[in-house]
Amino acid sequence: MSHAISRRDVLRGTGALVLAFSLSRHAFALTETGASETALRGLPGSLDSTPLLDAWIGIDAGGNATIFTGKAELGQGIKTALLQVAAEELKLPLPRLTLVTADTGRTPNEGYTAASHSVQESGTAIRNAAAQVREILIGEAARRAGVGIDRLTARAGVVTGPDGVRYGYGQLVSDQLLHVDAQPTSILTDPRDFTVMDRPVPRVDIPAKVTGGAAYVQDMRLPGMVHGRIVRPPSYGALLLSVDAGPVEAMPGVIKVVRDGSFLGVIADKEWTAIQAMRRLAARAQWEETAQLPDEARLPEALMALPSRDQTILDVGQPDVPSYAINALFSRPYLAHGSIGPSCAIAHADDDALTVWTHTQGVYPLRNALATLFGMPQEKVRCIHVEGAGCYGQNGADDAGADAAMLARALPGRPVRVQWMREQEHAWEPFGPGMAAHIRATLGPDGSIAAWQHEVWSQSHMMRPGPPGTLLAARDIAHPFPPPPPVDLPMPEGGGDRNAIPLYVLPNARAVNHFLPEMPLRGSSMRSLGGYLNVFAIESTMDDLARLAGQDPVNFRLRHLKDERAIAVITTTAERFGWKERPRPPAGSGYGFGFARYKNLEAYCAVALEIAIDQDTGRTVILRAVAAVDTGQVVNPDGVRNQIEGGIVQAASWTLFEGVRFDRRRVTSVDWAAYPILRFAHVPRAVEVHVIDRPGLPFLGSGEAAQGPTGAALANAIRDVTGARLRALPLDAAKVQAAMLAASFKAAR
Amino acid sequence: MTTLTVNGIGRTVSSTPDTPLLYVLRDELELNGAKFGCGLGQCGACAVLVDGEPVFSCITPVMLLEGRDIRTLEGLGTAEAPGPLQAAFIEEQTAQCGYCIAGMIMRAQALLERIPHPGDDDILTALEPQLCRCGTHMRIVRAVRRAAQNMARASEAGR
Question: Which PROSITE patterns has this protein been placed in (chain B) (predicted)?
Answer without folding.
Answer: 2FE2S_FER_1 (PS00197), 2FE2S_FER_2 (PS51085)
